[in-house]
Automatic annotation (TrEMBL):
Residues 15-112 form the YdhG-like domain. Transmembrane segments: none annotated. This is YdhG-like domain-containing protein. It comes from Candidatus Lambdaproteobacteria bacterium RIFOXYD2_FULL_50_16. It comes from the Bacteria. Pfam families: DUF1801 (PF08818), OmdA (PF13376). InterPro entries: YdeI_bac, YdhG-like. SUPFAM superfamilies: YdhG-like.
């Protein structure tokens, strides 16, 4: 048990019981308990596998490789339409966790086994940049170098953000507003 996670759970206002229940289940497995991104994170062989989080609506057990798991009950939720591997379980009562504790343990065990086996999702195809971004990168070698030095996930996030508007001018405005952040080596949501 990590004292930093003790402190995180102790200061939780709304979901303390749910966090404690999920934590106890996670601690039954050979996982290292850490704080990452300000949340309790559970690591196996130096790979992040699980994270606990809170929202206004529920307490979350996020599974970083959840898309690899069998989900016969259909409990695993994709957090966003562009999420590739991550899945989550959402709870708003300790009784839900208690009722599903066997299934939660199965998911945790299967996640660990998938990591041991080196299972990965198929690689995504090459990133096809929105036209306005491709043109901007061709005109600015510094921006092009900075963009391509970002992680693939950050590149995808920017590309999705830039491609969402229907009007070209809106796409260009988003690119202009994000240029300084890209040049600084930051992702779309980095501060």
């Amino acid at each position: 048990m990590n004292p930093k996670v003790d402190a995180f759970v102790a200061q939780a206002k709304r979901w303390r019981g749910e966090l404690e229940a999920l934590r106890q289940i996670l601690l039954e497995f050979p996982l290292t308990e850490e704080i990452k991104w300000g949340k309790p994170c559970y690591v196996f062989n130096n790979t992040n596998l699980f994270i606990l989080a809170e929202t206004k609506e529920y307490c979350i057990l996020a599974l970083f490789n959840g898309a690899l798991l069998k989900d016969p009950m259909g409990l695993l939720v994709r957090p966003g339409e562009n999420t590739q591997a991550g899945r989550q379980l959402c709870f708003n009562e300790v009784s839900q966790i208690n009722k599903l504790s066997s299934t939660i343990r199965d998911y945790i065990g299967e996640s660990i086994e998938a990591e041991k086996a080196g299972l990965k999702l198929p690689k995504l195809g090459a990133l096809v940049l929105v036209e306005e971004l491709a043109q901007k990168l061709d005109k600015s070698p510094a921006l092009k170098a900075a963009f391509h030095s970002l992680t693939p996930g950050r590149q995808r996030a920017y590309n999705l953000f830039f491609s969402a508007p229907k009007q070209s001018q809106t796409r260009l405005n988003r690119i202009e507003k994000s240029t300084a952040q890209i040049l600084a080596g930051k992702g779309l949501n980095d501060r």
